Amino acid sequence: MAPERETARERTPSGATATTRPRTRLDQPRPPRRRLLPEWDPEAFGRLSERIARFLGTGRFIVWMTVVIIAWVLWNVFAPGDLRFDNYPFIFLTLMLSLQASYAAPLILLAQNRQDDRDRVNLEQDRKQNERSIADTEYLTREIAALRIGLGEVATRDWIRSELQDLVKELEERQDGHGVFPAERSAGRDADDR
User: Fold this and answer.
1) What is the pLDDT of residue 194?
2) For burial by CB atoms within 10 Å, which of 60, 72, 78, 147 has the most?
């Protein structure tokens, strides 16, 4: 009997770590829970609301709404009495128009909010693009300025030609005046100075 008691003790946890509910495994996803409310995809609902809002803002909707209202009124005025479903004050028509307006307003607001979100994202992207363009423009401006400074220090063909012509004239003048080239004269001076 003693071995049976030990196995019974091993099977049932006791103490502060003992739990009455089963342990969940952390390496596996939880099973989906049932919900009382229906689930919907907010993105799909937003796209549907935008389509409805776009339709409500067209002339086609106004024309169809006008046709339906005229047909409603004509039917309820000229149809036989037992086929009329909304008599003269047209309370049911008013109710239907109010219902349509009560759904149209939130759908239009939802579509506007989604458009505002898209506009905000587009503005942020445009702002970042403008910052990159400004940085690129400033970089190119600095590079062009550096090239201009560098070109200012580079000897051009015309400048070299004019300098060589000036040297040739100076050499000719010295040769005609003294008969000694400047290189020979400086070498002679060095020998005399020693």
Assistant:
1) 46
2) 72
Share the mean pLDDT of the chain.
83
Q: Which two tokens stand for residue 41?
A: 């995809």
- For residues 149 and 70, the model is more confident at 70
Q: How far apart are CA 103 and CA 66, in angstroms?
A: 18
| pLDDT tier for residue 135 given thresholds of 50, 70 and 90 | very high
